[in-house]
């Protein structure tokens, strides 16, 4: 468990940032690729990452941890790369030692810890290539999905307060007095005298806590609930959600667990565009879907209540099988 200790003043500085963070999304994409490598470190041909990106996998320890210096709070990839290039050598060395402990890291990381300019250049290039190849092609969708989630958190904060907004982020995040507790294998206490910044992520597989520097808040990156969920119209006759709202509206609501445009809802639910719009409107009036504009696109996403109904219904379906 990670415990973030707030003061009364810093509790008032809890924010939900615009997000997402490009380097954190990259690390999430790398985690997913590592998970699919079988045996460990050997990727199927279809998943094999480009050669310039492969050195980044050396930065993961056997426990799946990465050095703290790699986890950037920057909202722009250019600024993150500039910070990486300018990091003090002793910070890099200390973070590598903490990550790998007594185990010797890959050869080029040993050079990086020793202050090699070539190794530092290789690191910056690998991070840039990783972002360009794994994250940038889907960046617009990541941003739109994050903005839809943030709109929902803002709605909760406005109606029910900061504490409820924090609790809505994840089942693994809770608050006890002035302490925010985050489920984690690590047992760690962190002061947060300058508040907390919550940032949504589409690709991070779990919550990431980034300690703040002097005068900076602690950053909590949370996976957007439901992003990895699979939606579809084909449900059994024992589907309680269909019994409650009707089969087509249940399909629309399941599709909206991931923020989608009206056309995407129609495709996922297997209905016409006009039908998808009509059902989305009915679900919105019932408080099960919210609709926000992201640029030129209108996105529909399940509210906290709607997502809870989907989870409860699908859990019963799984148990029945």
Automatic annotation (TrEMBL):
<protein>
    <recommendedName>
        <fullName>ArsR family transcriptional regulator</fullName>
    </recommendedName>
</protein>
<dbReference type="InterPro" id="IPR051011">
    <property type="entry name" value="Metal_resp_trans_reg"/>
</dbReference>
<dbReference type="InterPro" id="IPR036388">
    <property type="entry name" value="WH-like_DNA-bd_sf"/>
</dbReference>
<dbReference type="InterPro" id="IPR036390">
    <property type="entry name" value="WH_DNA-bd_sf"/>
</dbReference>
<dbReference type="InterPro" id="IPR011991">
    <property type="entry name" value="ArsR-like_HTH"/>
</dbReference>
């Amino acid at each position: 468990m990670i415990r973030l200790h707030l003061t009364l003043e810093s509790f008032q500085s809890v924010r939900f940032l615009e997000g997402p963070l490009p380097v954190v999304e990259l690390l999430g994409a790398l985690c997913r690729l590592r998970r699919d490598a079988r045996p460990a470190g050997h990727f199927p041909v279809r998943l094999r990452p480009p050669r310039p990106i492969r050195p980044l996998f050396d930065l993961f320890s056997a426990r799946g941890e990465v050095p703290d210096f790699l986890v950037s709070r920057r909202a722009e990839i250019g600024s993150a790369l500039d910070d990486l290039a300018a990091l003090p050598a002793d910070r890099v060395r200390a973070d590598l030692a903490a990550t790998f402990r007594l185990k010797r890291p890959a050869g080029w990381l040993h050079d990086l810890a020793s202050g090699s300019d070539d190794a530092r250049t290789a690191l910056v290039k690998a991070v840039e290539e990783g972002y360009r190849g794994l994250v940038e092609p889907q960046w617009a969708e990541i941003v739109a999905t994050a903005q839809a989630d943030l709109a929902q958190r803002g709605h909760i904060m406005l109606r029910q307060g900061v504490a409820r907004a924090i609790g809505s982020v994840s089942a693994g995040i809770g608050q006890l007095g002035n302490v925010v507790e985050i489920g984690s294998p690590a047992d760690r206490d962190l002061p947060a005298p300058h508040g907390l910044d919550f940032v949504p992520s589409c690709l991070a597989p779990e919550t990431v806590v980034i300690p703040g520097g002097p005068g900076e808040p602690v950053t909590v990156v949370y996976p957007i609930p439901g992003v990895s969920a699979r939606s579809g119209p084909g449900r059994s006759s024992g589907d309680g959600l269909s019994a409650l709202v009707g089969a087509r509206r249940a399909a629309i609501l399941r599709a909206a667990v991931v923020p989608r445009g009206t056309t995407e809802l129609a495709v996922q639910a297997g209905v016409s565009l006009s039908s998808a719009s009509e059902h989305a409107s009915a679900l919105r009036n019932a408080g099960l879907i919210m609709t926000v504009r992201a640029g030129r696109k209108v996105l529909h996403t399940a509210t906290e209540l709607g997502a809870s109904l989907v989870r409860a219904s699908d859990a019963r379906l799984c148990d029945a099988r």
